[in-house]
Write a structure and sequence with these properties.
The termini are far apart. Strands 4-5-7-6 form a four-stranded mixed sheet. The protein has a three-stranded antiparallel sheet with strand order 1-2-3. Helices cover 36% and strands 21% of the residues. It is elongated and about 90 Å long. By secondary structure, the protein is an alpha+beta fold.
Length: 163
Amino acid sequence: KAYVVVGDQNGHIGLGVKCAKEVATAIQGAIMLAKLSLLPIRRGYWGNKIGLPHTIPTKVTGKCGSVRIRLVPAPRGTGIVASPVPKKILTFAGVDDVYSSSTGQTATLGNLAKATYNAVTASYEFLTPDLWKKTRFAVLPYEKHSEFLASHAGESVAKKVEE
């Protein structure tokens, strides 16, 4: 069984898993599957929005099998505080600073890799205010015709009083 991670270190990552009788065949198949499963990774800031995004936007959790991993945003310069497998995956994703906490049977390499992949790809599963569409409200009739109503308000009242 082969696990392959591909990424451009700029916000895209893919994970491929393939079983085969020969190692080379498994690796080639896993590379193809990883390239086909490329997903965007959302990156954010830990404090002020200075420079390029360097961490994940919020706390995210991933799960596979018994393994759970929690990724927490970290200040710039902290680095990736994680075991070797999540550190490699987060590096391919382009995340520079993050804290991690994992539980379960983390010695199972495949489940740890899949849990990390699930956690990182979960960063786009929720909307934050910066992703909201701009709301354009329609102009109310009173606002649209306010000048007309202000100039002709006295005339219409006077006509009704005389009648």
